[in-house]
Amino acid sequence: MGSRALFFLALLSFSAVSLRSAFAENEADPGLVMNFYKDTCPQAEDVIREQVRLLYKRHKNTAFSWLRNIFHDCAVESCDASLLLDSTRRSLSEKEMDRSFGMRNFRYIESIKEAVERECPGVVSCADILVLSARDGIAALGGPYIPLKTGRRDGRKSRAELLEQYLPDHNESMSVVLERFGAIGIDTSGVVALLGAHSVGRTHCVKLVHRLYPEVDPALNPQHVEHMLYKCPDQIPDPKAVQYVRNDRGTPMVLDNNYYRNILDNKGLMLVDHQLAVDKRTKPYVKKMAKSQDYFFKEFSRAITILSENNPLTGTKGEIRKQCNVANRLH
Fold it and tell me: Keywords assigned by UniProt (predicted)?
């Protein structure tokens, strides 16, 4: 057999080995898929949905927390539940950083995890619980039901030092906001839709007073200013005090497109809300979402899906935590 034929056979053998290796790797790590737990824990999503429903029935503000969790976890490098980890002697928790100000109800994620663990010990990740609780929380608030893939695994370390690099602050320029979200594949209409999450919940006076004191921001609707001053009477509010303004006084417990009508009427609480309504890149989408809730829901669903699939750990990467607030090696 000639040398050329031998070379060709060797090449075929190498290709076959490479293909078998690739197929084996894909079989071991299918990545994110719909209904990932259908064989290993078929009741997982039903258990999570029922826990979200029960918790929402008892504590309405849990749904706001579920929604905020997915932003703060998935936007910071990977959707791997690093947000949920407590501080250790070696690392600070993301929960304790300024960007996480006002976040709470993490103990209820543990309640969901415990319920899932009773059904299927060591199978369902905290990262998937975080994402699915957000999905079900959005639906509980009257928002769209968003089919989301599962199969994430949990990270082992906090990313507290990276928060400011990935999460835009409420006072950032619109260029920074668009750039940060654009880096994970969310376009301008998607960013406008994601900020529609400000339709629900409330904002602490700490985040608002710079628009009220020492002088009122002239961009604010004067009628709304009166209410804001009533709710935030202190120029330097106590961060621990219960001093809040509802994001949407009309439908505060409903995820809807009323937010966009409010910000077009200069009733946005935070600077980022105001910028969204006036920036030439975002204003056309704000107007469109103010007119059509269907369009808002479509873009919101698309953006949440992209966010939920940001650089997840899958296959054998990471771990399945026993408790969501502690990595297994420290358990």
Answer: Biological rhythms, Calcium, Disulfide bond, Glycoprotein, Heme, Hydrogen peroxide, Iron, Metal-binding, Oxidoreductase, Peroxidase, Secreted, Signal
